[in-house]
Write a sequence for this structure.
């Protein structure tokens, strides 16, 4: 198509608003011009992109976990109340019949 790889990466990065792809395109273009190994640069940028994605997923999971604390606590309290109610009624009946 006559388009260099880094130019294609840059256009995809711009189209999908992915700053990492634009950075990768810039790095690949730079190292290709000076003759440094492109593979090392690509691996480093891919590793960083993966780490950023994992950090975002971890943050999202932590947020969802913290929002579930209240409903979980209410559920546990409800189960305890449901299972404990008959016992409490029997105890009160036992005390009321002995006095």
């Amino acid at each position: 198509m006559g388009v260099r790889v880094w130019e294609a990466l840059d256009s995809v990065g711009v189209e999908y608003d992915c700053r990492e792809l634009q950075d990768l395109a810039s790095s690949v273009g730079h190292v290709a011009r000076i003759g440094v190994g492109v593979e090392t640069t690509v691996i480093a940028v891919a590793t960083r992109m993966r780490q950023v994605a994992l950090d975002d997923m971890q943050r999202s999971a932590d947020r969802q976990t913290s929002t579930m604390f209240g409903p979980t606590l209410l559920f546990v309290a409800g189960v305890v109340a449901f299972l404990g109610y008959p016992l409490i009624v029997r105890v009160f009946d036992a005390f009321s019949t002995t006095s």
